[in-house]
Amino acid sequence: MNNMNTLSRRLADKYHMSVNDAKFMIKTVLTVVEDTIVEDGLMLQNFGTFNIVHQNTRLVRNPKTKEELMMQPRDTIRFSPGKRMKEKLNNKT
After folding, report:
1. pLDDT score recorded for residue 93
2. Where are the domains of the chain?
3. How far is the C-alpha of 88 from the C-alpha of 49, rounded, in Å?
4. Is 43 exposed, middle or buried (0-12, 13-18, 19+ CB in 10 A)?
5. Which residues contact 44 (CB under 8 A, 6 or more apart)?
6. How far apart are CA 52 and CA 78, in angstroms?
7. What gap in Å lies between CA 7 and CA 27, rounded to an integer?
8. What is the pTM of this model?
9. DSSP conformation letters of 6-68
10. Which tens digits make up the pLDDT trace of 2-51?
């Protein structure tokens, strides 16, 4: 799995910029993406959709101790890949 350093190097190489400039650009874009998702979700054509999903209180079990606990309600993010992303995933060689 790639991380921020790998992504920064790839962006820097592709667009002939410093790794630090690439890292700054990525962090800036991710901040805007985070803020947008929190406001109302985000749909990026051909890439995918980030939706906020509310999870109600539910009973969960610790698999190690078998102890049952009540999970508090919370919001989480669900990603659904777009058509082109699905095609790339399924046609990689």
Report:
1. 55
2. 1-39, 41-93
3. 16
4. exposed
5. 82
6. 6
7. 11
8. 0.76
9. HHHHHHHHHHT--HHHHHHHHHHHHHHHHHHHHHH-EEETTTEEEEEEEE--EEEE-TTT--E
10. 999 999 999 999 999 999 999 999 999 999 999 999 999 999 999 999 99
Give CA–CA dist 17/46, Å, rounded.
Answer: 27
Which phi and psi angles does 84 have, rounded to 5°? -65, -35
Residue for token pair 């508090």? 72
- Tokens encoding 47: 């890439």
Amino acid making up residue 61 = R
Q: Which long-range contacts (CB under 8 A, 24 or more apart) does 59-67 make?
A: none
Alpha-carbon distance of 73 to 50, in angstroms, equals: 19
Task: Determine if residue 16 is left, alpha or beta; phi over 0 gives left, psi from -120 to 50 gives alpha, anything else beta.
Answer: left
CATH 4.10.520.10 is the classification of domain 41-93: yes
Cα separation, 37 vs 29, whole angstroms: 12
